[in-house]
Amino acid sequence: MTIFQKLPIAIFLFLFFSSQSIMAQDIQQAIDALKDTLQLKEGEDRVLVLKDIGMKFRSVDRDSARHYMDKAYQQAETSDDDYYKARIWVAYGVLSQDEGRPKEALDFHLKAKPILETSKDYSVLGSLYTNMGNAYEALSEFDKAVDFQLKALENYEAGKDSLWIAGSYLNLGNRFKLIEEPDLSLEYYLKALEIYKGMGNEYMVTTSNNSVASAYIVKKEYDAAFEYAKKAFDGFESMGARLDQAYPVTNMALASWGLENFEEAEQYYIQAIALQKERGERLALLFLKNDLANVLLKQGKENRAEALALATYKEAEQMDFIPAIDALSKTLSLIYEEKVDFKKAYEYHQRHKAARDSLYFSEKSREVLNLKEKYESEQKENEILRQQNELVESELSIKKRNNMLMGSGGLLAILLIAGFVMFREQKIKAKNFARETALEKAMAEARAQEDLKEQRLRIARDLHDNIGSQLTYLTSITDSAKRGIDKGEVFLMEKLTQMKQFSLVTISELRDTIWAMNKDEISFEDIKERTQQLAATVHEATDDKVKVNIKGSPIHKVLNAFVGMNLFRIVQESVNNAVKHSDSDQIDIRFEELDNRVQIVIEDFGKGFDTSGESTGNGLHIMRNRAQKAGIDFDQESILGKGTKVTLQVRA
């Protein structure tokens, strides 16, 4: 319904950051209790109490939150322990995330990460990884967001922390909503809600109700969405968390819009905008104002809609935030259409198109290619019809001529004409047969070219998705290095090392994709050769601590480029998973031919894992998705203490 729903979920929901849960008591009472405790604390304990006071103030007063966080950091600097500084860096990252600066938030978290990872505090590590996942989500790097949320869940489970296990369920629900899986998203939100209800944690029950509301909005079940959002609104009100009411009010506005209650939606948006101004969430404000302009337009209030959209568009341009520019230019184009100012409507439509092209270049490329292929197919069909018409006209002409000859002569003439007709008919049949053969060949070549274009388009999308995300991260590291150029040589060396590592990964994936694009077909021997290169890379990267054995007799069969590339990608991901997670010093890869199928088995002999939890793995989801699209049978088995085996089968 609105692009506001597609923003990183951290804008709608709450980050899981605090080392203490917020219970049903009034937040101000909790702050007062911490202030009383503060008088009895000294040294490192005082640092943590000041941090907790700052975190509680996030829901009440943003300036007070920053004030107490600064005091906590000043106290941490007086100690000789970097651990407590790192704890405050994570908290600063949370405040930066609240204020719409995810890159700055991520910088704080990455600064704290090497220090905190030396600790054995599962709760602290879980909080760090959760907030890193939220920052990556806001930067649209969803694979990293899921990876760090799963790391957080592992730590919370190790610490048997039900509160934060439920929090991880909420964040996983957020990730599934981003990839347009609202049913899975709702399932995780409801799991979290049940845990919080069992714990009696009213604050997180309220937060979960708002998450459930957002899932129902994506499912377009607006009555249910409004019901859960209203529960969340009332819950925050009863606890005195006034600023937190911005989130359920936003969902109430979206639900009212969906139900076409435009006047109610307008009032809710005005209320949400006022609250978000106090919170200082700049990105959320841009989209809230855009939605309000659309609601005003629905009510026929074109002048108010125009003034609001223009002012917000200027803000988005100043921030150079392309998603908001895209949404607002589309809204302004619609407004000027209603005002019958087609010149301005066209101008903003062009701006919307330019922004959309920069956001969705690969989709536009695919549309252009599809139109081109459709046009070429129509041209070929028209040519076939033209030639068929010429054949029919030729046959009619010959029959007419033969009839005239037969009626003008005697028996000899009849015999001659009959012979001539028979000769001509045989010649026409031969000519027609030759034309039909040529047309069938041309159509077969056209189908082959279309199949090849589709394969290369799929590979191009794969290139865009994999290499594009890594280049985006390189850009982020470059920006961070430029901002921190005054921080010294050590900081810059760290950033350059990160850039080198991601460049090497990008080059490797680019070579694999180019290898596939340069082939119409990929043989199993090609895949085997690439797997041997992968094994050599593993040996070198682990100093021969992990051995990769490749077995199997030669297989002289081929696959098309799309299937072959996806098959190798799954083998590559399986080996990488074994190296990273199995603790096995040996990985076996077997190539086997089974009648009209070929089987590849990747097996390690490490620690294995509990398969009941495998549905939360993003890597496994990606491998299964690749296999499904390419027509590859995929199976994974794992036994704790014995290892993991991945079996792939494909028809060849």
UniProtKB/TrEMBL annotation:
Stretch forming the signal peptide: 1-24
Keyword Cell membrane found: no
Gene Ontology CC terms, in alphabetical order: membrane
Domain of life: Bacteria
Alphabetical list of InterPro entries matching this protein: HATPase_C_sf, HATPase_dom, Sensor_HK_TwoCompSys, Sig_transdc_His_kin_sub3_dim/P, TPR-like_helical_dom_sf, TPR_rpt
TPR repeat placement: 119-152
Record-annotated Histidine kinase/HSP90-like ATPase domain positions: 562-652
Gene Ontology terms for molecular function: phosphorelay sensor kinase activity; protein dimerization activity
Stored SUPFAM superfamilies: ATPase domain of HSP90 chaperone/DNA topoisomerase II/histidine kinase, TPR-like
Coiled-coil blocks: 361-402
Keyword vocabulary terms for this entry: Coiled coil, Kinase, Membrane, Signal, TPR repeat, Transferase, Transmembrane, Transmembrane helix, Two-component regulatory system
TM segment ranges: 404-423
Protein name: Tetratricopeptide repeat protein
Organism: Flagellimonas olearia
